C-alpha cells in the first residue's frame, strides 16, 4: 500500500466537514481585498490627492509599521497597499488552522487512528490537508484577480495581487504541516504557528519603519510585499516562497514518516502524581493550562515593543517632516511631540492585536468543555462559576501582562536612547495598560457568546472584533461620519501618551465588560455542558 493511499477520500472528507468554515474564511479575504479596492477610487479621486496621500503615508512610521510603504499612487497601487497586510494575516491564519484541524486535531481526537486502520496511507492525511489548503489559497487568488479586473484594474497587477495574498497562505499552511508533527496537541501546534506568524510580521514591520531593506528579507511577509502589485508586478519573489514551502513540506513528511501516530517529536512532559498546594484552585488550573500561550504572547510583544522603541527617534523625525501629521498630533492633544504620537498610535493598533489573545484565552473554556476535561473537573467540589471564573480572571491578568510587556519594551529601549529610562517606562507602561478595559470588553463578548451559543462563540467574538476594525475602514475609505466609532471600545480609551488621561471612559468600559461577563456566567450556570 502506498503512503498516499486514500488521499482523495480524505480530501473529500475535509471539503465536506469544512464546507461552511473554509468558504467563510477564504471568502472573507477575497471580499476584503475586492471591497477595499472598490472604495479607493472614491476616497482618492484625483492624481493630486493620491500623490499627497503617498507622500504623507510613506513619511508616517505608524503606517509603515502596520502595512508598509506605498509603491505607486495609482488606484490599484493604493488598494494593494491598504489591504495587503490584513489580507495576508487573515489568509495565513485561515490556512494554518485548516491544516492543523485536518491533521493534528484528528489525531488528538482519535479519528486519525480509526481511519488509519483502513486502507489509508501514512502520509494521506497530511497530503490531503496541504492539498486543500494550497487549493483554497489558489482559488482565493483567482477570485481576487477576477474581482479586481472587473473594476477595470490591469489584469497582470490583479493576478499579482491575488498571488501575493495566496503566497502568505501557502507559507503558513506548510508551516502548520510541520508544527503538527512536532507536538501532540493541536492547541500547541497552532500556538507555535501563530507565534511564528506574529514574529515574522513584526520583523517586516520593524524593517519597514527602520528603512532596513535587508531585514525585510528575513520575513515571508517582506517577500510577498516585494511583489508590488500595480507597481511593477514582480513575480520573482514567489521563488523564495516556493522554496520555503517545499523545505517545510519536506521536513514535515520526513518527521511524519518517523514518528508514532498520535505522538509528536517534542515529547510531552509528564506532571507529578500529586498536585502541589498551589495547583489546587481554579485559577491555578487555568494558569497551568494557559501559561505557555500567555508567556509566548508576552515575550513576543515585549520584543516587538523594544523594536518600536528602537525606531521611535527616527520615526519622530519623519513625523516632524510632515505638517499634516504634526497638526494631527496637536489636535490629539499631544503638544506637537511626534514620538508620543507614534507611541499612541502604535499602542492603539497593538491593543487590537492583543485582543486576539484575550478572545483566544476566553474561548479556552469551550475547548475544555468539548474535550471532556471540564466535566471531570466539575464532577468534584468545583462549581461552574468557580471553574469559569478562574479562566476569566487569568484572561484579565494575562491581557494586562501582554500590554505591560509592550509598554515595558517600548519604554526601556526608548528611554535608554533619551537618557530617561525610568520616566519613559512609567509613561509608556501606563499608556499601554490604559487600553486594558477596551480589550476586556471584547473578551467579555466572547464570554457571553460562550454562555449563550457555545458552538458559535468563536465566530461571534471574532466577528465583533472584525466589526470594530471594519468601522475604521469605513471612516477612512468611505468617508463615513467618525461618530460611528463611538460603538468601538478602542475609540473610547484615552490615547495616551498624547491625550489627557480621563478615568470616566475606563470606568464605563470596565462596567460594560463586567456586565457582559456576568451575563455570560449566569447563562453558563443554567445550560447543559457539551
Write a structural description.
Helices cover 76% and strands 0% of the residues. Helix 16 (338-362) runs antiparallel to helix 19. It is built from 24 helices and no strands. It is globular, with a radius of gyration of 24 Å. The protein is an all-alpha fold.
Total strand segments: 0
Helical residue percent?
over 70%
Q: Which structural category do the helix and sheet elements fall into? A: mainly alpha
Can you write the helix and strand succession as a string?
HHHHHHHHHHHHHHHHHHHHHHHH
Major sheet details? none
Tally of DSSP helical segments: 24
Strand fraction equals under 5%
Average predicted local confidence, pLDDT: 86
Which geometry do the CA atoms define? Answer: globular
Poorly predicted regions are none
Rounded to the nearest angstrom, the distance between the terminal CA atoms is 39 Å
Radius of gyration, rounded?
24 Å
Strand and helix map with partners:
Elements: H1 7-17, H2 21-43, H3 47-58, H4 61-66, H5 75-102, H6 104-109, H7 111-116, H8 124-149, H9 155-182, H10 186-210, H11 213-216, H12 220-225, H13 238-258, H14 282-320, H15 323-331, H16 338-362, H17 364-371, H18 373-378, H19 384-418, H20 421-433, H21 436-452, H22 457-477, H23 489-492, H24 504-526
Helix pairs in contact: 1-8, 2-5, 2-8, 5-8, 5-9, 5-10, 8-9, 9-10, 9-13, 10-14, 14-16, 14-19, 16-19, 16-21, 16-22, 19-20, 19-21, 19-24, 21-22, 21-24
Amino acid at each position: 500500500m502506498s503512503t498516499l493511499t486514500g488521499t482523495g477520500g480524505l480530501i473529500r472528507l475535509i471539503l465536506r466537514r469544512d464546507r461552511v468554515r473554509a468558504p467563510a474564511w477564504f471568502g472573507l479575504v477575497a471580499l476584503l481585498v475586492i471591497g477595499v479596492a472598490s472604495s479607493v477610487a472614491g476616497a482618492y479621486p484625483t492624481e493630486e490627492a493620491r500623490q499627497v496621500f503617498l507622500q504623507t503615508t510613506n513619511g508616517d512610521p505608524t503606517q509603515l509599521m502596520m502595512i508598509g510603504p506605498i509603491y505607486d499612487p495609482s488606484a490599484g497601487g493604493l488598494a494593494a497597499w491598504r489591504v495587503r497586510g490584513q489580507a495576508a494575516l487573515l489568509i495565513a491564519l485561515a490556512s494554518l488552522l485548516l491544516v492543523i484541524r485536518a491533521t493534528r486535531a484528528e489525531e488528538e481526537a482519535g479519528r486519525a487512528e480509526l481511519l488509519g486502520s483502513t486502507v489509508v496511507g501514512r502520509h494521506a492525511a497530511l497530503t490531503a490537508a496541504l492539498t486543500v489548503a494550497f487549493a483554497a489559497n489558489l482559488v482565493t487568488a483567482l477570485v481576487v484577480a477576477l474581482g479586481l479586473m472587473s473594476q477595470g484594474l490591469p489584469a497582470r497587477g490583479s493576478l499579482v495581487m491575488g498571488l501575493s495574498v495566496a503566497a502568505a497562505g501557502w507559507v503558513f499552511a506548510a508551516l502548520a504541516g510541520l508544527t503538527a508533527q512536532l507536538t501532540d496537541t493541536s492547541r500547541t501546534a497552532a500556538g507555535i504557528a501563530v507565534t511564528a506568524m506574529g514574529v515574522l510580521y513584526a520583523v517586516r514591520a520593524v524593517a519597514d519603519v527602520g528603512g532596513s531593506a535587508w531585514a525585510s528579507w528575513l520575513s515571508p511577509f517582506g517577500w510577498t510585499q516585494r511583489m508590488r502589485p500595480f507597481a511593477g508586478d514582480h513575480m520573482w519573489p514567489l521563488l523564495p516562497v516556493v522554496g520555503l514551502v517545499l523545505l517545510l513540506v519536506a521536513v514535515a513528511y520526513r518527521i511524519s514518516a518517523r514518528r508514532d501516530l498520535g505522538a509528536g517529536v517534542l515529547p510531552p512532559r509528564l506532571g507529578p502524581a500529586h498536585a502541589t498546594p498551589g495547583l489546587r484552585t481554579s485559577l491555578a488550573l487555568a494558569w497551568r493550562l494557559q501559561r505557555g500561550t500567555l508567556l509566548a504572547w508576552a515575550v513576543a510583544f515585549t520584543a516587538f515593543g523594544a523594536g518600536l522603541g528602537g525606531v521611535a527617534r527616527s520615526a519622530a523625525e519623519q513625523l516632524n517632516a510632515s505638517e499634516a501629521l504634526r497638526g494631527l498630533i496637536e489636535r490629539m492633544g499631544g503638544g506637537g511631540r511626534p514620538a508620543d504620537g507614534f507611541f499612541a498610535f502604535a499602542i492603539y493598533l497593538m491593543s487590537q492585536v492583543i485582543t486576539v489573545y484575550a478572545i483566544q484565552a476566553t474561548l479556552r473554556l469551550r475547548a475544555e468543555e468539548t474535550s471532556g476535561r471540564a466535566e471531570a473537573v466539575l464532577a468534584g467540589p468545583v462549581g461552574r462559576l468557580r471553574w469559569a471564573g478562574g479562566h476569566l480572571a487569568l484572561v484579565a491578568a494575562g491581557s494586562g501582562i501582554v500590554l505591560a510587556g509592550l509598554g515595558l519594551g517600548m519604554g526601556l529601549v526608548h528611554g535608554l536612547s533619551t537618557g530617561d529610562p525610568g520616566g519613559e517606562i512609567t509613561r509608556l507602561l501606563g499608556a499601554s495598560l490604559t487600553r486594558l478595559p477596551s480589550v476586556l470588553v471584547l473578551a467579555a463578548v466572547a464570554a457571553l457568546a460562550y454562555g449563550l451559543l457555545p458552538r458559535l462563540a468563536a465566530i461571534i467574538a471574532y466577528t465583533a472584533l472584525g466589526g470594530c476594525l471594519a468601522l475604521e475602514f469605513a471612516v477612512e475609505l468611505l468617508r463615513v461620519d467618525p461618530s460611528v466609532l463611538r460603538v468601538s471600545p478602542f475609540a473610547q480609551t484615552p490615547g495616551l501618551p498624547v491625550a489627557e488621561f480621563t478615568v470616566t471612559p475606563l470606568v464605563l468600559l470596565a462596567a460594560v465588560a463586567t456586565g457582559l461577563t456576568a451575563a455570560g456566567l449566569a447563562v453558563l450556570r443554567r445550560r447543559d455542558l457539551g
